[in-house]
Every structure is written in C-alpha cells, then in structure tokens.
Amino acid sequence: MSAVAVAAAAAATTTATSLEPRTVPVPEQLAALLPWGGLRRGSVVAVHGSTSLLLALLSTASAAGSWTAVVGRPDLGLLAAAEAGVAVERLALVPRPGAQLAAVTAALLDGVELVAVAGVERLSTAEARRLTGRARHRGAVLLPLGDWPGADVRLHGERIEWDGLGSGHGRLRSMRLTVQAAGRGAAARPRTADVVLVGAPTVATAALPGAAAVPSAAVPVMPAVPAARALRIAG
What are phi and psi of 128, to 5 degrees? Predict the structure, then answer.
C-alpha cells in the first residue's frame, strides 16, 4: 500500500477538519510543557531524545482516535509501540523511504494527523519549508526527529532512568526522563518537567539524535507483535 493510499484511508476515517479540536492530546505530564496543552494542529514539533518520548506522543493521540505515521525508522518495533500504548491499527510505518523522503512525508500529511519523520538532515531547506506549509494547510502535526528550521516547539528528553530491573533480572516497569520544551511565539519561554512513563516499552531503546542508548543487555527478549496489526509500507 502506498503512502498516498494510507493518507486517503486515514482521511476517510477522520472527522472533518472544521469539527476537529484545535489540538491533539498528549500525555498529561507533557501537556504542561506546551502552551496549547497539546500538539497544535498545523504545527511542527521537533523531537529529540529517546524513542520512548516519541512513542508517548503517538500513544495518547492514537488512543484518542488519531492516525499516526513514522517515516524513516526501520529499527522501530511494533512491540515497543504496542507496549507504549500506541494503537498500532492506526499506525503507518514507512521504514525506508529512500530518495522519496519528502514526497512520502507530504503524502502522509494529507490524511494522517501525526507524522514523525527521521533523516530530516537529508532534506533541503526548500523541502523542509514545503513540508511545514503542508502540515499547516492540512491541520496535521509534523514531528521531525532532529533539528528543524523554524520549528514551533522543540522537545528534548534529557535524562533517562529505568525502574524495575534488579541485579541481572526483572522487568522494566517505568521510565523517568527530564523533558525540556522551547520554541517560538507562545512557546518561547523554556519549560522543563520530569516525566514518568508507566509501563515504558521494553525494547524502545534506540536513541534519537542527542540521546544516550540503553545497554541492550538490560532489555528482555519478548515475542513479536503480529505485523498485520499495523500498516507497514515497504521502502
């Protein structure tokens, strides 16, 4: 299934823009960091830090009925997404967009409410500007995983602490991270909050730019989530 087809399917199941709330919900502990109490539709929110920070944003939105998509992250596992609370039946994955990164992202913004995209350093300034305009016009939220010129908000997960592991045994029960938010306009004043993600994903340890990776030895092996529960677009 192409990114265009996914966007069309998502748009067909989404309430008309004029009737949608102004924001997409986020975890309660993150809401205080955002001047709108959520992710404002039509905005760009750059995400830095652990993958769990990204999954926390996707989980609350998808649980509320929003379609979400992740582009350019072949290492993102469905088990991690499911354990973080993401409704994977409304999650589209485009692991390897290749040279079509900008085109795929633009197509998804036409019908998907939250679109996260990695590899943004490969985009030209003009492509980034066009995607920003596309998100604003369509009322979608663009979540670049890295630096983005003119981002409305930048979220950075600074520190990660795991709870639940003993000496060589146990299961990760929660994760604590310090999240900093800064941006422009209403988000210009920097804000910081300590966030605890209960039931943090056990395999979401791949780092986004600027984050330290968690040693793989601390991650228990878990059975895979059936891929049929999510849309995965070959790339």
Answer: -60, -40
Backbone φ, ψ for residue 37 (5° rounding):
75, 5
Distance CA 17, CA 37 (A): 19
235 part of a folded domain: no
Domain that holds residue 173: 1-226
pTM greater than 0.85 = no
In this predicted structure, what is the pLDDT of residue 225?
A: 32
- Cα 140 to chain centroid distance, Å, stands at 13
Looking at the domain assignment, is residue 184 inside a domain? Answer: yes
CA distance to 56, 61, 142, 158, 201, per residue, from 84 (Å): 7, 12, 20, 19, 5
Total domains in the chain come to 1
In a domain, 36, yes or no: yes
The answer to whether residue 20 scores a pLDDT higher than 90 is no
For residue 14, the number of C-alpha atoms closer than 13 Å in the C-beta half-sphere is 27
Tell me the C-alpha distance between 60 and 169, whole Å. 30
